[in-house]
Write a structure and sequence with these properties.
about 220 residues, alpha/beta, 5-stranded parallel beta sheet, elongated
Amino acid sequence: MSNVLWGLVFIIVGLIWGLNVLDIIKVNLFFRGWWTLFIIIPSLISLFNSKKKSKVSSVFWLAIGIFLLLASWGIFSYDLLFKLFIPFILVFIGIYLMFFDWFRRDKISRVDEGKLDSIVATFSKEDVKKDDSFNGAKVDAIFGSVVLDLRDSKISGDVVIKASSIFGGVDIIIPSGVNVEVRSTSIFGGVSRKIKNDSNNKKVIYIEAFCMFGGVDIK
């Protein structure tokens, strides 16, 4: 679907450009704020990308692109846009944390968070080393950092780790003999994965990462 939509975009732009050259129509492709389309169109098309499970970052950038376009048209000032940027991010984070799990129906979202170990670092640092049975964890680093060391842990089956890094960082050290599957949503942040899966491993750690002005390091 995303390839079809990109194809339509190029065809439409090409036709308009060609018809302008032939003086058949007069459509200004370089209208006020045309550059915002480089944000709006990729974000809109990524919403239809079936391979991308998380649409949060696409919605975020789509909203930013639309706000910039409206500011270019003079509907409101750039000064007001910049003043509302931080409040917008805070509201977006709040909506994500409260409601995003409700819209997913996969292995990660079906996990009962009440059964996961809770590790929270707010304006602090947490070093957690697991040397006993590990059944999953919910890790939140908000203006802080968390190191979750699982090298000596005992994992009997597939487990889930939900990691949120907001103006912070999370390090997850994976034990041997375990594969890792990652799904991430990153806004001004990202996930760094430094290990490779082995087809001989039967156990899987599913990691869902949300990064905003922060990062999750899997090693």
